[in-house]
Amino acid sequence: MVVQRRTSRDIRNESRLDVLHTVLSARETTRNEIVRATGLSPATVATVVGELLAQGIVAETKVRPGRSGRPTATLGMNAARGFIIGIDVAETYVRAVLFDTALNQLAFADGDGGERVPDADAVVEGIGRLVDKLLEEQGISRSDVLGVGVSLPGLVQGPSGPSVIVPLWAWQNVETERLRERLALPLAIDNPLKASATAELWLGRGRYRSSLATVNLGTGVGAGIALEGRILRGATNSAGEWGHSLLVLDGRLCRCGRKGCVEAYVGAPGIQQTLRDIDPTHPLAGVDLQGDFIEAVAAAANSDKTDPVIAETIARTAYYLGSALADLVAIVNPEVVTLTGWTTWALSEHLLPATLRHLREQAPGQSGQDVQVTVSAVRGNSAATGIAIIALERFLADAGLLTTNVPIAL
Q: Is residue 220 part of a domain?
């Protein structure tokens, strides 16, 4: 077994990330506060801050009195450095979000997703139009865009070169090249699991926890995992496909071709099937579009009038989810599990208490007793935010400030 040793380059990279995380999450801080927050030496913090100031990533925002009477400069992300666009291409929608370098959301634009878009070429053109629209409406030149991140609902693999597989639109590498040409901007691509976990690591629970799992609930389900403050990618960037782990032996057919996957029970189509199993004559059993179905379930759950079919659908879904999370917790042993995605936003109030109870009942030994399970604290679209952060990381890598293992950069 070959154990990779940490090099001085790795240590410098980690120090820069620690400083960036601290400045970004604090919004406004000082060098001394960074030292206390990160545990880095004053000399290391001074060096890293100097590098970030030189590149215009961090700026001195104002001067305030210090404890010794000498003035102290406060630091913040330099929002004026440029713009980043994060695009969440989901199977039911596409959302493009414009950020400044401090990751303040400035504007967004929506397009149709997989339930209404016929093929990969249409998706590429739709993404291009959304970017054009955002820049035109905000009066932003392409030269001021530091990068575009695109989150795609499929396998985004490496490290031997770009390999993107999105089954819904038969998306392969040629479509990636078309997207690069259509946007004519620096481009980073990853899947929503890694993107959401990145957002959680920079802006959510990851600011206070070194190990976490961010679980996305939508059409598909999966887990973005961070261990010791770093995104777990695996040998080919496919780590986190928890949604295709086995929940029920010889159970429901999953769209991946296997039977009994977690996704077949807690993905939006799986929740639809649960309701149909309970009562195939229920009014919601015939709703075709997933987004419409989940919204209708949420509306019924929030109603003053109890619908026993809806209540049982949610109860079974919480049981499935808690059982699946028990396995994830036993294997990964995170400090916290955060739930995100459009199903989470709609149903978390009703799903979360029972899900946590089932997790703790079924997790082996004491593995589930201390883990926290909560809704993600990342505001807005976490996949769009996370993929924008990945695009920012790519820009910083190109500037020589970070080494990064983002697998696809075009």
A: yes
